């Protein structure tokens, strides 16, 4: 996977990231996750995007270049990891919502809790970051080289195995069909509508 693969609109890249591999090498060991669920956020054109109102210190990593990691804390509790996409200077990104741990399961379980079942280790964006050991210190990391957090291509996913639907838990543009997941995969998170969801014109 290279910059050219990611230099497209988030809604184009998001389904292509299904099956890709996110890896974090640390002193504790390596955890490797196959991505099973993503959500696209389209910058200034997207009311649910952190970049909807322009560039800030918090969202600066979203403005590129493609292939960087944008990490933010959700509700002051959980870290969430996004792959920056699109041309340099255009703030679009793909939230990695869930994945299947394929290496380092013991370390992932140590981080998540010994009683957590395998399919739940990286289900949901906060749990995925916890399993991988990704925090705010990784914001802006180069996923394509020069970082211990890397993104690489995996086995191609046939279009028939991809499910498309509305995004989870956002209050604006919640009905945009920008959530992509592997059909029937037990690691994919459950859909929930935000209680603050407002009507929109879908995209």
UniProtKB/TrEMBL annotation:
One of its GO terms (biological process) is base-excision repair. Keywords: DNA damage, DNA repair, Glycosidase, Hydrolase. InterPro entries: Formyl_transferase-like_C_sf, MPG, MPG_sf. Pfam families: Pur_DNA_glyco. Its EC number is 3.2.2.-. CDD domains: AAG. Coiled coil: none annotated. GO terms for molecular function: alkylbase DNA N-glycosylase activity; DNA binding. NCBIfam families: 3mg, PRK00802.1-3. Belongs to the DNA glycosylase MPG family. This is Putative 3-methyladenine DNA glycosylase.
């Amino acid at each position: 996977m290279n910059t050219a693969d990611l230099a497209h609109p988030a809604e184009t890249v998001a389904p292509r990231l299904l099956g890709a591999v996110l890896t974090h090498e640390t002193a504790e060991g390596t955890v490797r996750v196959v991505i099973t669920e993503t959500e696209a956020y389209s910058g200034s054109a997207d009311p649910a995007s952190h970049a909807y109102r322009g560039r800030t210190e918090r969202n600066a990593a979203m403005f590129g270049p493609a292939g960087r990691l944008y990490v933010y804390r959700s509700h002051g509790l959980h870290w969430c990891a996004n792959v920056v996409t699109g041309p340099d200077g255009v703030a679009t990104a793909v939230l990695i919502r869930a994945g299947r741990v394929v290496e380092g399961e013991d370390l992932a379980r140590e981080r998540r809790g010994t009683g957590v079942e395998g399919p739940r280790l990286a289900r949901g964006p906060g749990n995925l970051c916890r399993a991988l050991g990704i925090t705010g210190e990784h914001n802006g990391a180069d996923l394509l080289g020069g970082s211990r957090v890397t993104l690489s291509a995996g086995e191609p996913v046939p279009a028939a195995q991809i499910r498309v639907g509305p995004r989870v838990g956002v209050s604006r543009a919640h009905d945009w069909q920008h959530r992509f997941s592997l059909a029937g995969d037990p690691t994919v998170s459950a859909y929930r509508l935000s209680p603050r969801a407002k009507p929109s014109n879908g995209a």
